[in-house]
Amino acid sequence: MKKLIIQSLFVVFAxxxxxxxxxxxxxxxxxxxxxxxxxxxxxKNETIDVMAPTSVLATLPFSLAEKGYYTFPVNTVKVLLExxxxxxxxxxxxxxxxxxxxxxxxxxxxxxxxxxxxxxYVLLATTTIVDFEYKIVDSSGQLLWQARKELAYxxxxxxxxxxxxxxxxxMAITAAIERxxxxxxxxxxxxxxxxxxxxxxxxxxxxxxxxxxxxxxxVAADAKQAPAIN
Amino acid sequence: xxxxxxxxxxxxALLAGCATNNHLYQWGNYEDTLFAHFHEPEVKExxxxxxxxxxxxAPTKNTKKVAPGLFxxxxxxxxxxxxxxxxxxxxxxxxSVWPESEPLMSMLIRNLNAREQAVQEQxx
Lengths: 230, 124
Fold this sequence. Notes:
The complex is a heterodimer of chains A (230) and B (124). With 230 residues, chain A is of the alpha/beta class. Chain A has helices spanning 2-18, 28-33, 52-65, 74-83, 89-94, 97-104, 164-180, 184-197, 212-225; strands at residues 37-40, 44-45, 70-71, 108-122, 125-138, 143-153. Chain A starts with a helix and ends in a 5-residue tail after the last helix. In chain B, helix 3 crosses helix 4. Helix content of chain B is 75%, strand content 0%. Chain B is mostly helical.
């Protein structure tokens, strides 16, 4: 009996060991700054697809504003920057973040770079791949947060009918559809959602989020309970 | 019978759940308008008309706020069409709803007012 108890204790220990808290130290700079507003800089493109940067730019305000941050109007910002002579997003990314933030009165800037944006037709199935790098830099030029996300999508590969010939035909059809209208946008929205809300990269709620007050009360309580050792 | 009724109520509740979203804001066709603006000149005007109609109706229609930046974007679209007065009106709307936009909106409104005045004086 005693042995059984000890054994079960071990099991419990082993289990608690498994659910070790994720490392949330990346949040500290964000908690310290408590950003209200984010300037979404024009998206830098490292691929050859000329539609990629403006497509990604258009999807970004939704995910960030819905987190509770004030997001500056992306097209207005783009037009104003062009008026200042910044036609290339790469030039905007290379400019000092301090002066960019000051120009718009933003708390911080989000920089997104597209590393991959491809749709490959391989053996009857088209795979769409996106790979984005995200960075938030505050108005003093300090890097607060960064993340990278690569996602791939191949439509309906698991949908087997049990008939190999029918499967081949079906795959050829989906591949054709996929080539005509690749799933870049749903994939881009998914990448944004996973990065801004997911484990170990998710952003804290912004001031317009209904969860904001409770969140920072908990941050304060946790800080009291477990004072930093280092 | 009672069970059937309950089933109906549940189904209705589920459907109602589908109709409303849990978004913080009203977005209208903002993303589509941006896409059309950047990539699809053939539907650009149509999208913009729908967008402006959404912004006119949105504040009265729903208790949710219009998402941040959307009034300002309308201002910039109007400016592109050469309608400075409408642009100023939308920038002022953005400013009145979102204090974070104040530095940028004030600057835009100031510059546009100055430009309007210069044009009027030239006309005299």
